[in-house]
Amino acid sequence: MRAVSTFLYRRPAVYVLMLLIPPLLWFGTVYLGSLFTLLAQSFYAIDEFTAKVVYQPTLATYEQVVTQPANVDIIMRTLSMAVAVTIACGLIALPIANYMVRYASPRARAFFYVGVMLPMWMSYLVKVYAWRLILAKQGILSWLLDTVGLGAALEALLRLPGVGGPSLSASYLGMFIVFVYMWLPFMILPLAAALEKVPESLLQASADLGARPVQTFRRVTLPLALPGLAAGSVFTFSLTLGDYIIPSVVGAPGYFIGMMVYQQQGTAGNIPLAAAFSVVPIVLIMIYLTLAKRAGAFDAL
Amino acid sequence: MTAAIEFRDVSRVYGEVHAVDRVSLTVQAGEFFAMLGPSGSGKTTCLRLIAGFETPDTGSVLLNGREVTDEPPYARDVNTVFQDYALFPHMSVLENVAYGPRVRGQRKDDWRRRAQEMLELVQLGNFGERRPSQLSGGQRQRVSLARALINQPRVLLLDEPLGALDLKLREEMQIELKNLQRRLGITFVFVTHDQGEALSMADRVAVFNRGRIEQLDTPRTLYMRPATAFVARFVGSANVVTGELAQRLSGRADPFAVRAENIRLRAPAAAPDADTVSCIGDVADVQYHGAVSRWQVRLESGEVFAAAVADAGNNGDFRIGARVRLEWLRSDAVPLSSAESP
C-alpha cells in the first residue's frame, strides 16, 4: 500500500491519468461520440422514394437547409427571436444585477438571488403552460390590462404585422415574453458574478477623477461587465436557438429550428435533415462568439 | 489666505460606532498633512469625507473656503491615490492616466499629450501602452499618482499609499512624494498608520484615536511633547507612568511619559546621578535591532518599562533575569494631560 502511494506520488502523471480515465471514457464515447455521430449523419441524405438513409457522403442535405425558402425562413425566424431575446435579457438583467451587487442590503441581495433562481428549480413545462394561461385571450394579463384601461393598447399591439396575432398566447410577442422570462436567470447570474469582481474603489476612482455616474457606468462598469454579458448572452442565444417546447406551446404557428429537428427525427424520420438543422445553431453560436471576441468582450478577462 | 480644507464639527456614525466624532480641523494650502492612527481610528473616514465618498451626519466640510458637504466626488477639486491603486484593468496605463481629461471632454491630441507628460513626471514615459497588470507594485503606485495629479487638483489625498510596497521602495517613495509635493505646491493629505512615515514626511500630523483627534502638531512637538498617553505610546512608543508609581517616582500623581531612548540601564548598586529619577527592576527580555537594543524591564510593582539603548556593548553583561537600575533625567519626563488609553 505504502509502495503504491510512493509510486503514485513520484509519478503524478500516472496518478492524474488514473483519476481521469473513467470520466474521459464517458466524455469521449457518450458525449463527443454522439455529437460526432450527429455530425456524420448530417452528411448523408435521404432517398426521396424509399425514405431510407443513403450512406453516401453528400452535401445535399445542407443544400436543402440553406436553399429551400421554407427552411431559410425557419432559420431567420429562430435567429431573429434569439437576437431579440438576448438583447431584451441583457437590457433587463444589467440594472437588476447591478442593483443586486452594488446597492442591495445583504438581506435584499439574498432575496434577489433566491428570486432569480427559484424559477429555475421548477418544472420547465409547468412554467410554459402557466404562461400560456397568463397570456391567453381571456387570461389574467389581458384582464389586468383591461382593468387599468390599457385593453385598447394591447389590441393595437396585437394588430401589428409580424409580432401580433389573435391573442398574446398565439403571437410571437407572447413567445418572446416567455423566452425572456425563461432565460433571464441565465443572464442575471453571470452578469452579477462579473460585476461582483469589480472593486468598489474603481467606481470611486472614476467619480474622484471627475466622471459623472453615467460616464462611470459607460467607461468602467459596462466594459468590466462585458465578459459576464457575453457569457450570459451565449446562454440566452443558444437556449433560444435550440428550444422546441416554448414555440410549440406558445406563439404563432411558424416553425422554429428546434421544432424542425424534433419533427424531422420523429414523425418525418429524416435523420440527416434533423442533424443538419441541429448543426445550424452550433454554427450561429460560433459566429456569434467570433464577433463577440472581435468586439473585445473577453479583453477584461 | 483661505484654508485648503476645513472640518467644522464633523461626525460620521455607522450604527453604534462613531467613526468620526465631532472633528474640527484646518489644513493650510500647500501643507503636507498627515492623518495618523491605528486602524478604525477614523483617519480613513476623514479622508473619504474630504473626497466625497462619504457624507457627514452632522457638521460641514469646506474646500478652499467653499462648502462642499453635500457635493459628489466628481464636483470636488480633490483627487485621490487609493490604497489598492484602483487602476482600471481594461485600460492601458496611458488611458488610465488620461481618464480625468477624457471624462471632462478634452480632445484626443490634448489628453494624450498631457497623460504622456504626467507619465514622464513619474518616470514611466515608456510604459504608456502596457496594462496595469503588467506593472510592479511601485510602478502601479506611480501611475495612480500620475492619474490623480493630471487634473491639477488643489488637494491630493493619499490613502496609505506606501502600505503595499516593500521597505526599500517605501523609503524611496517617501522622498519622492515629499519632493513632488514641494515642486507642485499642492496640499497633500496623507493617511497612514506608520508613525515613522508621518513624522518624516508631514509638516503637521493629526493623531486619531477612536474617531477623535488626540493631538494636532508638528512632528517634533508630537514626539517631544505628546499631550496624551495615547500619543506618547503611539508616536514615540514611550513609557507612560500613572497613578501610584508616578507618585512614587516624581512625587506627584500626575501621569507622565518617558521615551525609551531616554532611559539608561545601570548596575543596581550604582549611585544615582543628580537630577535623575531611577527605579529597580528585572530584565524580562532583550531584542537586538542593530542600531539599538530594546530592553523590557519589569519593576517589582509589576509595570514593564521599555528602554532603547544604543548597542555600545557596555550593557551586554545584563542577562535576562538580571537586576538593573533604570535611570532618566528629570527633564525627560513629559507631563501628560490624560492617562487613559485603550
Walk me through what this model shows.
The complex is a heterodimer of chains A (301) and B (342). Chain A has 301 residues and is mainly α. Chain A has two domains: 2-42, no CATH class; 70-300, Orthogonal Bundle (MetI-like fold). In chain A, 75% of the residues lie in helices and 1% in strands. A two-stranded antiparallel sheet of chain A has the order 1-2. In chain A, helix 3 (60-67) packs across helix 14. The model of chain A has no long low-confidence stretch (mean pLDDT 89). Chain B folds into two domains: 5-227, P-loop containing nucleotide triphosphate hydrolases (Rossmann fold), CATH 3.40.50.300; 234-335, OB fold (Dihydrolipoamide Acetyltransferase, E2P). Chain B has helices at 43-51, 93-97, 99-103, 108-121, 137-149, 167-184, 195-201, 219-224, 229-236, 243-250; strands spanning 5-14, 17-27, 32-36, 58-63, 66-67, 78-81, 155-159, 187-192, 204-209, 212-217, 239-241, 256-258, 264-266, 276-288, 292-299, 304-310, 323-329, 334-335. A six-stranded mixed sheet of chain B has the order 6-7-8-3-9-10, sandwiched between helices. A five-stranded antiparallel sheet of chain B has the order 13-17-14-15-16, with no helix packed on it. Chain B is elongated and about 80 Å long. The model of chain B has no long low-confidence stretch (mean pLDDT 89). Chain A binds chain B through residues 199, 201-202, 204-212, 215, 219-220, 223-224, 299-300, and chain B through 51-53, 72-74, 78-80, 82-84, 86-90, 99-100, 102-104, 147-148, 151.
